[in-house]
Input
Amino acid sequence: MIKMYDKKYDLIVVGSGPGGFPAAIAAARMGLKVLLVERSAQIGGNLVTGLPLLAFLDRSGNAVVKGIAQEIIDRVKEVGGANDHIRSPLLNSMTHVNGSWMRIILFEMCEEEENLDVILYSELKSVKVDNGRVKEITIFCRGEELKFECDRLVDATGDACAAYMAGAEYEKSEKLQPTTITFELANIDYDELFAYLREHPEAYTLPETFHGVQQTMDFFVNNKCFSIMGFRDIVKMGRKSGEFNVQRNMIDFCKQPNGNALVNVSRAINTDVTDIESTVKAEFTCHRQVKEIVLFMKKYIPGFKNCDLVSMAPWLGVRESRRIAGKKRVTLDDVKNLRIPEDTVAMAGYNIDIHSPDSENMTMLAVEHAIGIPYGCLVPVRIEGMLVSGRAISVDADVFPMTRIMPTCMAVGQAAGTAMALAYKHDIQPSEIDVQELRSELKKAGAIVEL
Output
């Protein structure tokens, strides 16, 4: 329950998004006194933006993420805010959610945990490390500095901010995938859209940069919710006329359970969200682009002439920034050979999709079935008492697009929180835990660690 904050916690989780929320819940349920620190006014990060959750199922149809992640979806479904996992010929599977209902359920789940405290409006200022071990964090909250002691810290900031402040080794690609702001449009005429697509199959035919994936008319028509990337000829025309200046060669949107279209087209290239000037510039760029995209879609995309802009994501969607140097690393060779090692603690069942850092193109490589993420990918090489969760884990740059999606981050988060509870139980560092014991605990909690 939320109450007066303690000065010391068994575990602090920084960031309440897909990588952080499950970590905090898992550890609290195993008896640790946990503080969840969130810089915004709401719990959930990108979980509450309305973006569909990809690859609870892998390309072969295997369920690869369950546990706390599935519990969240089940609870949102109970209030009509989520649909079942839909198999997708493009994205493996899609789970559409109502972002507002997701927010409410996440707050509700936090209130139910006796061992969990939550502090909002709190930006991480520093991480104190003594002899290579985490000891304390300082946050800045509503004009005040607050300090909390801890021996265990999960960095779920997405950008490895806590690990960076602690002096952990990390890497960052020279060119980063672009950031975006998604938005939602109402009043779509899907009958008009489908009539156009039937007459113009080229409108949803994917370019050669998409390897092993293709879209089908049946998928659009036979599902209440669907995703589509296409209309390349219309975009090309708009580029020539000067009406479409976003560096993107397709229109990308998905139909939500409420009938609205969530659009993922804006693209701020050359953005590094670890740099404040770059981040602010990207916010302005994407907001300007949203206006351009909406007006363009109203004028040229069939079914959208009467659409209304009803909501926007409250912050930039970040695809890529820092990744820690971990004790283990998932490589492109691991993906090509579909490896699921014996120390797997979470499964990644998406494809490899790369939004070009400096062009309009997108590349996607289909991955036949899920791969395993070893525990060592969560463990920084030089800092004790810390695990990294979410998209900042230790993987190759070419693998990162497969592991950055929200369900995979939630699975990693549950593994991180459970690992911290075992470290506390045995009075050891998280780097020293028995990974097979961790896997056993995750299985007991309904998580998936093998096919």
User: Anything to note?
Assistant: The chain has two domains: 8-85+96-174+321-354+371-444, 183-312. The chain has a mean pLDDT of 95. The first helix runs from residue 21 to 29. The domain at 8-85+96-174+321-354+371-444 is CATH 3.50.50.60 (FAD/NAD(P)-binding domain).
